[in-house]
Amino acid sequence: MRNLKMKIQYDGSKYKGWQRQKVGDLTIQYKIENVLSKMTGEDIKVIGCGRTDAGVHAENYIANFHTECELSTNSMLDYLYEFLPEDIVVKSMEEVGERFHARYNVKSKTYVYKINNNKFRNVFNRKYVYQTEEHINLSDMREAAEVLIGTHDFQSFTNLKSSTKPTVRTINYINISEVNGIIEVEINGDGFLLNMVRIIVGTLLEVGLGKLKSVDVKKILDEKKRLEYGPIAKAKGLCLKEALY
Amino acid sequence: MRNLKMKIQYDGSKYKGWQRQKVGDLTIQYKIENVLSKMTGEDIKVIGCGRTDAGVHAENYIANFHTECELSTNSMLDYLYEFLPEDIVVKSMEEVGERFHARYNVKSKTYVYKINNNKFRNVFNRKYVYQTEEHINLSDMREAAEVLIGTHDFQSFTNLKSSTKPTVRTINYINISEVNGIIEVEINGDGFLLNMVRIIVGTLLEVGLGKLKSVDVKKILDEKKRLEYGPIAKAKGLCLKEALY
């Protein structure tokens, strides 16, 4: 049985996220499983490095699948390129050991949230960038981001309903940069709870806009439950940049 | 009577080009005239710096219009931003002398044609870049481009039906560059005939692909009529970068 690791780029605009919910639905996982199953004649299950929310994009999403199919990886890539929709591309594929598991083995993931802080939207990236012309104070955002670095219980930063699952995660860094009015919030961590990246960005944006202070972010974190403040940032600005193993 | 000059960015993907053909049609000119007419209560006619083909984009398209409306240019920009579709943005507006005419006064225009020469498309710019993984020889393309620099009769490089209009134009430069597999063909000239930029790019691409040589391009130019070779490059890769006055 071969185990194949894929690197996938997708424009999540029209999808209900990575994870298949039922057969035939509009998810990236389903689209890829469907093409791989036709290609191999097998019932392929793809293991992804994590869920991404509806509308979230990926530059280098990692997934793997098992197959008896003997096609070369290059032939498989060509097949996928031909039959996947134009907003999903499997960029590369490689043989990995049988124990490789895209979700269990991931060490950390990096997400980038993009904000166009110029007066008007840019028509060419409008589907991948959140637009606001309100003044954003980056040094306040950076100070508040420091509060979240490290290992914490992130219950306050998830819309996860069940409280039975562990909610402790480690954020390794949050880099906030700005070039030509495009602000990028880059977050790397060992794992993220449901909506966690978007709630973190939404909360940091409230700080940047002067509606919250970094002490408030500390209070929210210590509260260990999801409160009213800290709105969820719009999905379209978020992109999974990479998954590290 | 005020004369107002606008700088416009648009994603031409779903439009039939700049120029209005009838009232209510899907052209950029019509969309802007419609919003300006509602804003002013006048029947606004917008003068553009030139036609762009269906599917062609613009980064800095220049246009002007006359009005008695006394709104500030900032208020007009806000109104346009609110009521234009999301793929058209008027980026700036300024008062100009009454004699300024966006089409008659333009000195030169610069177009950029983008080609993704990597194996697979990039989902995030797929609507703005022509995709081919075939090997393209850039130095051959540059040599052939030299043939076209200067003042020539460009009848061989237009789909213009009528031969009564003058077809002599001056191309000031053609720069061909490549970064990370994205090839950019930048063309500046004093004016371009119908489809001329796309036919030039299509012809240069044939040279890059080894199907034509620069001597063939010279022959095509000297022929002074539109021949079979030199296909028209796809519209979606083309963008009007700027218009100079």
Question: What is the succession of H and E elements of chain A?
Answer: EHEEHEEEHEEEHHE
Coarse morphology of chain A: globular
Number of E-state strands of chain A: 10
Structural class, judged by helices and strands of chain A?
Answer: alpha+beta
Give the count of structural domains of chain A.
2
- Helix fraction of chain A? 10-25%
**Largest interface by Cβ-Cβ < 8 Å:** A-B, 19 and 19 residues
Beta-strand percent range of chain A:
25-35%
CATH topology of the largest domain in chain A: Alpha-Beta Plaits
Question: Top keywords for this entry?
Answer:
homodimer, 245 residues, alpha+beta, Alpha-Beta Plaits, 2 domains, 5 helices, 10 strands, globular
What would you note in describing this structure?
- The structure is a homodimer.
- The first copy, chain A, has about 240 residues and is an alpha+beta fold.
- Chain A has two domains: about 1-95, Pseudouridine synthase I, catalytic domain, N-terminal subdomain (Alpha-Beta Plaits); about 110-245, 2-Layer Sandwich (Alpha-Beta Plaits), CATH 3.30.70.660.
- The first copy, chain A, contains five helices and ten strands.
- In chain A, strands 1, 2, 3, 4, 5, 6, 7, 8, 9 and 10 form a ten-stranded mixed sheet that branches.
- In chain A, a hairpin with an 8-residue loop joins β2 and β3 (about 55-65).
- In chain A, α1 packs across α2 (about 75-85) and α3 (about 140-150) runs parallel beside α5 (about 215-225).
